[in-house]
Automatic annotation (TrEMBL):
Keywords: Signal. This is Uncharacterized protein. Residues 1-20 form the signal peptide. It comes from Niastella caeni.
Amino acid sequence: MKKTFAFVLIVISSMGSLFAQSSDFIPGGNVIFEDNFSKDPVGDFPARWSTSSEGSVVELDGFPGKWLKVNGNVAVNPELKKKLPEDCTIEFDLVVKKESCRVHFGITPISDVASGNVHYKNISVTLQNMVGYPDIVINKDVQDISSKRDFSMEGYIDRILHVSIAINKTRFRVYLDETKVVDMPKLLIPEYRNNFFVAGGTSIPAPPDGIYISNIRIAAGEADARRLLIKQLFEQGSVVTNDISFNPQTNEMTQQSLPLLDTLGQALVADPNLNIQINGMEQAPVMTQGTTSTGAINEEMVKQKVEKMKAYLVEKFHLKVDRIVTGISNKIKTKTDAMQNTKTGQKIKGFLTEIVKL
């Protein structure tokens, strides 16, 4: 049986990718480029774009507005006045038909796709429908690094799919609707931020239909939360976060917690004079077996958690054990909103971590 259209993610990196349902994408506030082709005549190539071959603005039955049709073996890019900033977001709407060509999008050191072959130099995501191939392939330029088969695109044909990309210095994240499909903290180097592109993949025989994009928005954004946390540690001497969490059944750190600890570990490696204390505090009362009392804190459990953080940092980054001190606190002082949910005004339940510069 022929496989329905599936995503294959092709991403340049020496590191893996992490799949998670996510709503942590925050669009940049300072718009660099925005286009929905409303001012371009149907049948023309849009005025603010470049192409390696061709392309045209069209109207699609059942979909509002105008769309840029990109055929197979054709690449397009916006005409940007400057290269992408190190903190930015890229968003666009995508429509894929049942008989569309593969979809290829990402960033590239090639400023204008008319002047070079973008397929050989890019950080990108590819969507394809090829029987026997993995759904996800992690790739460096034209070299496959690894592959995955656990992300299906059934149900995404003939409807609008919103694509979001977040770039924060070396970090590269990709979201498909509300799903974060790529999060690589050490992927980018400056040369790849010259431009954003979308391309139609090639195949023999050529697919009868192209792909369609619209509502493109590129904006400068803020540095990601992990970098800001380290910046605050150096400037203010301490930080508090509730982004380090533990599985309630196993008391092991969640995978979502590791990137923050990795950023902290990298800071410790970069500055041999930096020593820290990690304090833990349970925001919600920990209920011990056989008791219904409130306000009880399982100090042994808290101690285990901070010791696991220390062990992770020491082992992964080969740090001397005396550079990290651990402790337990019932009164973590913070000027951040970690203690309170600003939307509801209620205290956030869970585990708080305080990192203090010694």
